Amino acid sequence: MEKVHLPTTEAAVVAIREIAEEFAVSMSVTDDIGADQTSRRTSAELFTVLDSDGSLPHEAFVELGGSPSVSVQFFPEDDAKITVDGVEFHDVPRDSVPAFLRSVYGGLASTKGRLFPPGQWLIVPLPGDETYKELIPDFNLTPWLARSARG
């Protein structure tokens, strides 16, 4: 699968909508548009909507239903935070989000435990030798995380 360039937050939301339809999961979207509304724009002047370069920043929060519980928060800086059953993946490039979700819903994501250092990790492989790995913060695995365990 080729990585598709998603130039805008709206393009990324449309790509996620297609994935939600493909895997039959519900989806809800909340949009924040304007420098005075987005979360990383704390330095924006009062009542300022545009950035200093004249662009209109767009942030979106997408929740996907079903198991696992997945949410994606897109930031205007072309990155996203993806949360899968409580495990947060920060700074995922916007262009990698569709492949990430396909790996999760397609059964490629897995958990792996280690004795030393102790812990469980959620591993999400993407095409092209790109892999995301995050420590699972709680030792009580959700049913989906427990089913995804690999030896």
Task: Itemize the secondary structure elements and their pairings.
Layout: H1 9-22, E1 27-33, E2 58-64, E3 70-74, E4 79-84, E5 87-93, H2 97-105, E6 110-114, E7 119-126, E8 130-135, H3 143-147
Antiparallel strand pairs: 1-2, 2-3, 3-4, 4-5, 6-7, 7-8
Helix pairs in contact: 1-2
- Shape descriptor: globular
Poorly predicted runs: none
Indicate the radius of gyration in whole angstroms: 17 Å
Strand share of the residues?
25-35%
SSE ordering: HEEEEEHEEEH
Number of strands: 8
> SS-based structural class?
alpha+beta
Strand order of the largest sheet: 1-2-3-4-5
Average pLDDT for all residues? 83
The tally of helices reads 3
Largest sheet: 5 strands, antiparallel
Tell me roughly what share of residues is in helical segments: 10-25%
Quote the distance from N terminus to C terminus. 27 Å
How does this model look, in words?
The chain has three helices and eight strands, in the order H-E-E-E-E-E-H-E-E-E-H. Strand 3 (70-74) and strand 4 form a beta hairpin. The mean pLDDT is 83. The protein has 151 residues and is an alpha+beta fold. The protein has helices at residues 9-22, 97-105, 143-147, and strands at 27-33, 58-64, 70-74, 79-84, 87-93, 110-114, 119-126, 130-135. The longest helix is centred in the first third of the chain and has 14 residues, at 9-22. The strands form two sheets. Strands 1-2-3-4-5 form a five-stranded antiparallel sheet, covered by helices on one side. A three-stranded antiparallel sheet has the order 6-7-8. 19% of the residues lie in helices and 34% in strands.
